[in-house]
Predict the structure.
Amino acid sequence: MLKNYLIKFSFYFFTFFFLSSSFLIGSIFYLSNYPWVDFSNLEYYNPGKPSIVLDDEGKELMRFAIDKREVVTINEMPKHLIDAFISAEDHNFFNHGGISFKGILRSTLINLYNRKIVQGASTITQQLVKLIFYDSKKSFKRKIKEQFLALILEKQFTKYQIMERYLNHICFGYGIYGVEAASQRFWGKSVRDISVDEAATLAAIVKNPQYYCPLRDTNATEKRRNVVLYSMNKLGYINNDQYSNTKNNQLIIQLPDKNENLCLKETLRNFLESIVGKKQLYTDGYVIQTTINSNAQKEGQQIFSRHCARQQKILKCEIDGGLIALETDSGNIKAIVGGAENFSYFNRALNAKRQMGSIFKPVIYAAAIEKGISFAHTDIDEETIFAYENHQYAPKNFNHKFEGEMTLAYALSKSNNIVAVKTLLNVGSEKVTELAKKFGIENISNKYPSLALGCIDTTLIQASAMFNVFANNGKYVKPVMVLWIKDQLGKKIWKEQFVKREAIDSRTSSKVAKVLSASMERLKKIVPEKWIQSDSIGKTGTTNDARTCWFVGSTKKITTAVYIGSDDNGALGNEVYATRTALPIWLEFNNKIEVKKESFNYDPRLTTIYIHEKTGQIVTENDENAFPILV
C-alpha cells in the first residue's frame, strides 16, 4: 500500500517538475523570439450579427443577439466591483505576472490524477486571453498557448487596463456581455451605481454563466453570491458587519418582458448552442427555420396561463404544467407551452416527468387488437386481487364502483381500471412494453399489473407523440421543432433527420381511434365548454390523488397534449378531474386554432357496426346502449 502511494507520488511530482521546468524554459524562449502580439481588438466592441429564428410562415419569431454593450472605464467602476471579481476569480491578480504557479501546481496534480483536464488554473489575464482568442474547449495545448499569451498581455497592458477590458468583455449568459449590459439587464441601472451585494452577484455569475445567471435561477445565483461575499470578507474587502448584512439580502432582479416567451427561447437556445456554439449563436448571423406557429404559440400560452390562474384560485394550491401541439402527419411542433409563466426557464412540456395514468390505456387495447381480441370482447368489472411474484394487487376504479360485464370498447371509453389490468395480463406485459417502445415510450421498467393504470413516467412531448399514432394511421413520428439552420451565406449547415415508422397496423389504429372518438362524443354531454367542430379523438388521465391531470386529443390535423399538476407532485385535492382541469384548456386552444371542420379518415377496409356496450351483442344504431366499433 505504502509502496504504491510512493510510486504514485513520485510519478506526479516528477511529472509536474518536468512540465513546470519545460514551461519556464519554453516561456523565456517564446517571449524572446515571439513577435509582439496585436491586442488592438480589445479596444473595440464588435457585437457580430444576430441569429434570426423564423416561425412556420417565415416571419421572425425571435432573435439571438448580444445585448447592447456600453464600455465603462475602470475609473467609473465602483471599487467593490473590482474587489468582488478579484475575490471570486483571482485573489493574487495584482501580484502575479499573468499566470499563477500555485494554481498550476494544484490543477496539474488534479488533472494528472484524472488523466484529463478537469480543473483550470486561469487567472483573470488568462480568462481575457481566452475570451478574445480561444473557445472554452479544454485541452493541454490550448492551455499552454493561453499561458504564453497571458504573459505577453501583461507586458503590453497595466493591471487596471486588463481588468477594465476583462469586465467589459466577460459573458453573463443569454447574450449578455460586459458588466454594464448585465447591470442594466438585471437591475435596470448602470454598473456605476450597483451595491456591494450586486457586485458580488455579477462576480458570482461568471463561474458558470448558463447555470448561475439569475434569469435562470435566482436561488442558485444567490448561493454563489454568498460564497463571493464570504471570500470578500476573508480577504478584507468588506468587514464583518457588511458581510452579515449583505449575505441575507434577497436577490431581486427585474422581470423580463412578459410578451417575450423566454421559456420557448431558452428551449431553442439550448438546442441551437449544441449545434453552432454558445457564442456563435449570438454573433454569426444564422437563420433558423422552426416549425412553431406564432399564433398557436401565443394563444396556447395565454389560454394555459389563464386557466392555471383560475384553477389555482379554485384548488387553493400552486399548480403548473404544459401544453404541446404537433401536426399529426409530420410531427412538426406548432406550439409548446412550458409553464403558466412564459418567462419560466424550465420547460415542463419537455422536461417534467409525470406518471401517465389512463392516457396509456389505448396502447394496452391496441396490443389486444393486434393479438386478435375484438373490442366486442367482454370481461367482468369486479373487485379483483391480482397475484404476482409473491405480491397482491387490488386496484379500484376511479369512482370506487364495479359495473359487472362490459365490452373492451366500453371499458376503454369509461377508463375502467379492472378490465384494463385483465386485458394487460391477457395480452402479456412484455408485449405491451414492446409495443409502447414503438410508440416512443422507451424507458419502461414496470412490467407489473399496475402498468395497465399508467404507472410509468413520461414527458408531455412523449405523451403527445404516443397518442398521435392513433390519429396518424398507426405511424409514429418524432416531434420536431427546428427544420434547418443556414449560415450568413445561405448555406444549410444543419437539417433535421426525420423519424417516421409504423408502430401499429392502420386497421388497429383506426379501431382504437373509433372508440376514442365515441368517448369524445360522450364527453360532450358532461363538459359545459364549447366543443370543437372537427371530429376528434381523446383520452383523459388522472393519476393517484389527482397528482397529474391529463388530456391528450387529436383532430385530423393537430394532436394536442395538456397536463396540470404541482411541481412537487403533490395531491391537488379531492374531486379533481381531468375533465375540469386539462380538458377545458384543450377545448379552448383547439377552438382558437381550428380552421375548418374536418373528419377522420379511418382505414377503408373497415366497416362500422354497433354493439351493446355491456354484452357485445350486435344492436341497431338507435339502441340506447349502442356503441360504434370498426371491424
